[in-house]
Specification:
about 110 residues; mainly beta; Immunoglobulin-like; elongated; binds zinc ion
Amino acid sequence: MFCIKCGEELKDGYCPKCKEKREMATLIVSRTGNAFGVVVDLNFEIDGVKYNILPGKTLTIPLIPGEHVFSYSIEVIGKREVNIKMADGETYLLKLDFFDLIYSKPKFILQEK
Ligand SMILES: [Zn+2]
């Protein structure tokens, strides 16, 4: 893991150059209700790593601070990509709703510490 500010390699999450501690960022992905009661598989990727989430489930994904590419594909709309920039120690909540994803971009909500 490298420092988000100066690029120096971290030692136990500590940047020797900035003399500051760097923490992992967290993305909480929570999927809301079913699509007409039908369980539709929803796949998404973060930086090319594949995830699958069922309705009502929540995934907590630790990420290295910095910019990440969130992508998902749904048959009727094809593949979409959004970038998310996370600072160290930040936690974002992403609520995934099958129909919201068709009509709007996913929203990443910064959580209070
Ligand atoms: Zn640094």
